[in-house]
Amino acid sequence: MYDLAQDNRLPQLAGIGYKPQHFQSLISAPGAVSWLEIHAENYMGGGGRPLAQLRALADRFPISVHGVGLSIGGEGPLDPDHLARLKHLCDWLNPASFSEHLAWSTHGDTYLNDLLPLPYTEATLARVCAHIDEVQEVLGRPMLLENPSTYLAFAESTMDEVTFLSEIAKRTGCGLLLDVNNVFVSATNQSWDPVAYIDAFPLAQVGEIHLGGHDEDEDEHGAPLLIDSHGREVVDPVWALYTHTIARGGAKPTLIEWDNNVPDFPVLEAEAARADMILQPALV
Amino acid sequence: MLQSDFTAAILDPTAPIPSGMVDPKGRPAGKRFNVYRNNLAASLTDALETGFPVLLKLLGEKSFKTLALIFSRTHPPTSRALSQYGAAMPAFLEEFQPLAAYPYLADIARLELAIRRSYHAADADPLNAAGMDPDTLMELTPVLAPATQIVTSPYPIHGIWRRNTQTDAPKPQPTAETVMITRPEFDPIPHLLPAGGTAFARALDGRTTIALALERSIEAEPGIDLAPLLTLFLTSGALTFQKGPDQ
After folding, report:
1. Rounded mean pLDDT of B218-234?
2. pLDDT tens digits for B27-51?
3. Of A136, A130, A131, A126, which Cα lies nearest the Cα of A106?
4. Structure confidence by residue, pLDDT tens digits, A17-30
5. Pick among B2, B3, B17 to test the A interface (most A CBs inside 10 A)
6. Are the beta carbons of A154 and B2 separated by less than 8 Å?
7. CATH 1.10.10 is right for the domain spanning B122-247
8. Do residues B3 and A74 make contact, with C-beta atoms less than 8 angstroms apart?
9. CB neighbours (10 Å) of residue B15?
10. Chain A contacts of B237, Cβ < 8 Å?
11. Which run of H or of E encompasses A281?
């Protein structure tokens, strides 16, 4: 079973997704930013500025390595070369945490550069668990698995998402990364109750929380369709859902994700400070 | 749902949406599936715009987006590290009829790919010849640093690159140009490599002395002025020493 105290060295405070344009601000005045998350795939080159900056940051901040390309939900086997590159990065950096997604992104030799959805069935459950076993075995460390944002459902699914994720955590001993914005996006798109989702979620297994911004659209029937864009502030209903999550599950390392239209550092820092305000009472 | 069907449909906006994907009321997913199509097209276009800034400037945003969309659908990434996405772009451009009147674009794409390779290449200690006596220098057997890249073209690719990245650059002249990219610290710098320079660079294999490599460059380009060539290689961080197995 994933042990929050032992398997995760991220502080139970706010962090941000690292963008190179914020390097100087982070070194000189990080403010409310207590830790950083990087996308593993951006640090698989041989050297140069990316790895030099990462090494300098790792001397000052706990780092979370977040993979986006492992394709854990893929029908095919995991790519052994990619897994080896991940291991190389984790061995070099010894990050405070490693996480990946409940999604697929490759088919054969094609990499689709997105987090694609999968049906929740006994067959997909077995496949995802086998892949997580392999990842944890190769990396020699437990991982966190993140709930996806989804825009559609599969008629063939036989269990709900929380049941599916809970079962994965139980079978593989992995922890979970709870993206509260993804819960809000998926719940809106799928007509679920987001509070009921959080209340059913195994929060004791959650090693990290994500917060990000989304865009609003609607489908051809006029139903709301939220898009997980990571391009703006966290909206108030997501902050409310986050506050509910912390009240219920206690303080968790919390990441502000902002990957598109990246703002100046003070805007991100203010979002981190807002998360810290919600986390502080839960820490005592 | 078969992921092969999903993949085919996401890459081809005219393909039917695979069955079994639904909205909360059980109706076919329709526009909801298009979110995945749009995400893929937008993220790959972004990656290509970031990776080919001079090509973007030469074509303009509208034409580049059209090119990026056609390219990304027919040549989706094969690696999860998008820093090298677009390796197939030069060959694609050579065959791309609408841009056949601009044959230098493929070599500009090659140059931009080489700059990216240089940016991400392994670090190396540059050969430091400061204060070294010339006889000692001539007997050294360096290699090209991992970040050193050479791109040869029948077109003035260095001039075109400068014209589109620097404010005071002169108009490119119609001549063949070879570019050597070096990375003294973290930022790749494209240098114009004089004729004969490629022969010098290619000769440096870790066993060949600088003296012998200079002879190779004279064979390739009998009129070559050796002093500026050597200065370029010794001051740009182009060279390093091969590490032995136990170093």
Report:
1. 96
2. 999 999 999 999 999 999 999 999 9
3. A131
4. 999 999 999 999 99
5. B3
6. no
7. no
8. yes
9. 12
10. none
11. helix A265-283
Per-residue CA distances from B189 to A141, B115, B142, B162, B201 (Å): 40, 8, 20, 11, 16
Record the tokens describing residue A172, joined without a space.
Answer: 């593989």
Look at strands A254-257 and A14-17 and give their pairing. Answer: parallel
Cα B214 to Cα A110: distance, rounded to the nearest angstrom: 45
Establish, for the pair of chains A and B, how many residue pairs have beta carbons separated by less than 8 Å. Answer: 130
For the stretch B145-181, pLDDT in tens is 999 999 999 999 999 999 999 999 999 999 999 999 9
Full-prediction pTM beyond 0.80? yes
| pLDDT tens-place string over residues A146-205 | 999 999 999 999 999 999 999 999 999 999 999 999 999 999 999 999 999 999 999 999
Paired strand residues for A256? A16, A211
Q: How many domains, in total, are found in chain A?
A: 1
**Pick from B32, B122, B183: CB nearest A152:** B32
CATH number of the domain enclosing A104: 3.20.20.150
Question: Which tokens is A154 given?
Answer: 């599969």
pLDDT band at A264 (very low <50, low <70, confident <90, very high): very high
Q: State the average pLDDT over residues B195-219.
A: 97
Q: How far apart are CA A213 and CA A146, in angstroms?
A: 16
Distance CA(A86)–CA(A5), nearest Å, equals 24
The token pair at A27 is: 């070194």
B128 band by pLDDT with thresholds 50, 70 and 90: confident
Q: Do B32 and A113 touch (CB under 8 A)?
A: no
Per the structure, the complete domain to which residue A185 belongs is given by 4-283
**Residue A257 bridge partners (DSSP):** A212
ipTM here: 0.93
For chain B, domain boundaries:
1-102, 122-247
In this complex, the residue of A82, A118, A155 whose CB is nearest that of residue B22 is A155
Backbone angles phi, psi at A80, to 5 degrees: -65, -30
Instruction: State whether residue A211 is helix, strand or coil.
Output: strand
- Extract the tokens encoding B13: 């906006």
